[in-house]
């Protein structure tokens, strides 16, 4: 009877004071590139990266460097290093999987790997509709909000055209995470 009492008391104490969750993982960039690097520093870290002239605008920043020898997991990819229009300071890296790989299965494989590494995503969305060519398009996106970056895995498919990419983007640190 005494053992039962001790077990009940122990269970009650644990139930009232649960173990706090581990703090979320934080990252300072992608591979050897860290937020705030200049284009010259990124080129030094990735010697095969080539300048894009003119730069390509994407989500308010510009792809200024492209590295075609990238890999994401086991998949060959191209990395685009993004900089704000008014500063020479790396703010994001978008890594696009070689389109010759099956998009849906690649998306699922990468989602599983990212969940294992960063935990449950903050958001998951799927949208479908008709595009201007009257074919069905589908977009899936999974997003993780870490302390200072956002990681977004996206799959887009419209008929025979599609793609999978991961965008690692810097944002203001969130002290609540």
Using only CA atoms, what is the Rg?
Answer: 21 Å
Percentage of residues in helical conformation: 10-25%
Average pLDDT number = 83
Taken together, the total number of domains comes to: 1
Question: How many β-strands, per DSSP?
Answer: 10
Side-by-side strand order of the widest sheet = 3-4-5-6-10-9-8-7
Structural class: alpha+beta
Number of helices: 3
Strand content: 35-45%
- Give the terminus-to-terminus CA distance: 44 Å
Q: Ranges with pLDDT <50 over ≥5 residues? A: 2-23
How do the helices and strands follow one another from N- to C-terminus? HEEHEEEEHEEEE
**Biggest sheet: strands, sense, closure?**
8 strands, antiparallel
Overall body shape: globular
Verbal overview:
The chain has 177 residues and is an alpha+beta fold. The chain has one domain. The chain contains three helices and ten strands, in the order H-E-E-H-E-E-E-E-H-E-E-E-E. The strands form two sheets. It has an eight-stranded antiparallel β-sheet, with helices on one face. It has a two-stranded antiparallel sheet with strand order 1-2. Strand 5 and strand 6 form a beta hairpin. The longest helix has 16 residues. The N terminus is likely disordered.
Blueprint of the fold:
Blueprint: H1 2-16, E1 29-30, E2 33-34, H2 39-45, E3 50-58, E4 61-72, E5 75-83, E6 92-97, H3 103-118, E7 123-130, E8 136-145, E9 149-158, E10 161-170
Antiparallel strand pairs: 1-2, 3-4, 4-5, 5-6, 6-10, 7-8, 8-9, 9-10
